[in-house]
Amino acid sequence: MCIVTFRWAPDSDEPLLLAANRDEFYERPTERMHWWPGDEVLAGRDLRSGGAWLGITRHARFAMVTNIRNPALRREGAPSRGELVKRFLVGDMAAQTFVANALDQSDRYEGFNLLCGHVTASERALWFGNSQERNVTAVTPGIHGFSNASLDTPWPKLVRMKQAFRHALAERDPSQRSARLHRLLRNQTVTPDAKLPNTGVPFEVERMLGSIFIQSERYGTRASTVLSVSGDGARLSEAGFAANGEPQERIEFQFPLLTTKRQPATADTQ
What is the pTM of this model? Predict the structure, then answer.
């Protein structure tokens, strides 16, 4: 299902700061965050369909996707929504155009939210698309978030997450702030039944999905990601989780963003 909160500040020294959880069935095979062949794309990989849910490139192309929780949008045999993230990261299409094209083809997919952008020194823009609304939206500066409804839909767990995210911004030390954001992503505060959204899934499922960090017998939070993009480059840390919610080794990446012209993606990344 997934959830993300981020600060977009294109005129600052840190244009993008993001904290996100990836929620998935435990049995779905997944490769953790890593450099893809060609050493250009940093992302995890869904080993069932080959797509990704969140990633960034050395040339500061960024993308992530979440689903829309609405049983009416399920489509038998639909391609993976993670294909959209993969295609943007390995391609060279402008983010606004890519999101518009994805929405034009949204009937092929189950419901999705797509966030794409460029975070280079010369080009800073984030674009959002929701497959039900079908509007390409330029993300405005500020703190935003989304889960399995559209951008900034005030679901209780997203409201809690955005509030805690704001508090974490008071931490000046980058490593301490990252640790604080990872603690936020482990928050299991439940949403009172009366405040749960009604998305069409069984009520016990709605209740299980009402916390920032999700844990159940078959489904839960598989990875937590904190990403910072600044003038010094990108810093990303990912904490993985086993089926019982126990943390796996946290992996970290820090790298400069390149301003040279990007080479075409290799066949291995297609």
Answer: 0.93
